[in-house]
Design goal:
six-stranded parallel beta sheet; elongated; Glycosyltransferase involved in cell wall bisynthesis; glycosyltransferase activity; 43% helix; transferase; Rossmann fold; 2 domains; seven-stranded parallel beta sheet; Glycosyltransferase_grp1; alpha/beta
Length: 359
């Protein structure tokens, strides 16, 4: 194939969410000698400028069909939940009917799309083995290459290691959590542990990015304001490193669970031990794929168990540091952005060759 391969990543917004950050990281680390990259989104957001600074064009607010006709990609990479979305896929189907194109999706939540519009997608990439295995259980479909694959989300582990070469250095027993300010990203566990820790741990502090009204009301009602600090959103890895670097433990709690767990992976890349909890039934549960109990962090079921796990790490700095280092090593081995993007580039070229040969 002569010249660079044109790749268009398609998202629904360019906000600060994990899906948008993953796309930005792919674009920043794909080989510029092999790929010419661009992004389409109907909605603008803070990621747009960062993506352009990274060297990719952006088509913001433009009709997707128009963006496809202007950029003329050889690869369209969709970032979506996975369930049927005929309106979202229609411009891609129309473009594919007229042009040779490879359509790949990052299936963020591991959902099934049996609709006619979903047939335009050549390859589905799951963001965790948990999502791939659940998909196979629910559909009875053999999750095998080249129709399906697993590609972990990229994390700039090199940056975090350079920003925090000695790992987090908290000056007091500080626990933190970070998410979007969305009630769906919370669990009551994140609140119920606070009175326990405030009573049992002198100097306990809890720093929260993404506070929601329920959390703020809980803190006020239980007299926890001296222990809890609600912080504004963080938009860059430098800001995230500053946040993680001041913590002793990342306290992850989300009843919906994680299809991957970007916050967890970034905390691990910073050398921070993580406490989390398993999800019930068939909800997203990849958080326990990342957090190996007793290795990279601890997994608890109840508020009492969770608070005990946090206290264990706060009171045993050597154990906490060992788990943090194990997490950093795992993140570097499995989620390093340059390696993940390199693998994605290789997948594009392999899949394009297969499609040309009719395989």
């Amino acid at each position: 194939m002569s010249g660079r391969v044109r790749v268009l990543h398609v998202l629904k917004s360019l906000g600060l969410g994990g899906t948008e950050k993953v796309a930005q990281s792919f674009l920043a680390h794909l080989d510029r000698d092999r790929f010419e990259t661009a992004v389409h989104s109907p909605e603008d957001g803070p990621r747009a400028a960062q993506i352009r600074q990274g060297g990719s064009a952006t088509f913001v607010g433009m009709d997707l069909g128009r963006a496809l006709s202007v950029f003329r990609p050889q690869v369209v990479h969709l970032h979506r939940a996975g369930w049927p979305e005929p309106e979202f896929l229609r411009p891609v189907r129309d473009y594919a009917a007229r042009n040779p194109v490879l359509v790949v999706e990052t299936n963020v939540f591991g959902r099934h799309d049996p609709s006619p519009s979903g047939s335009v997608i050549d390859t589905h990439l799951f963001v965790s083995h948990f999502c791939a295995e659940r998909y196979a259980r629910h559909t009875g479909v053999a999750v095998s290459w080249p129709r399906y694959g697993v590609l972990y989300n990229p994390v700039d582990t090199d940056f975090f290691a350079a920003a925090l070469p000695d790992g987090p250095q908290p000056s007091e027993p500080v626990v933190g959590r970070i998410s979007r300010a969305d009630p769906g990203k919370w669990s009551r566990l994140a609140l119920e542990i606070l009175p326990i820790l405030a009573r049992a741990t002198p100097g306990f502090r809890y720093r929260v990015v993404g506070g929601v009204p329920e959390a703020m009301s809980f803190v006020r009602a239980h007299g926890l304001s001296p222990h809890v600090e609600f912080l504004p959103p963080l938009s860059t890895d430098a800001e995230l490193a500053g946040f993680y670097g001041g913590l002793a433990v990342l306290a992850h709690a989300n009843d919906a669970g994680e299809s991957f767990g970007l916050v967890i992976a970034e905390a691990m890349a910073c050398g921070l031990p993580v406490v989390t909890h398993p999800s019930r039934e068939e909800r997203d549960n990849a958080q326990v794929e990342l957090v190996e109990h007793g290795v990279t962090g601890l997994v608890a079921e109840t508020a009492e168990e969770y608070a005990a796990c946090v206290r264990r790490l706060l009171e045993n700095s050597a154990e906490a540091r060992a788990m943090g280092l194990a997490g950093r090593d795992k993140a570097r081995r499995l989620y390093r952005a340059q390696d993940i993007a390199g693998r994605l580039g290789d997948l594009y070229e392999e899949l394009l060759a297969r499609k040309r040969e009719g395989a």
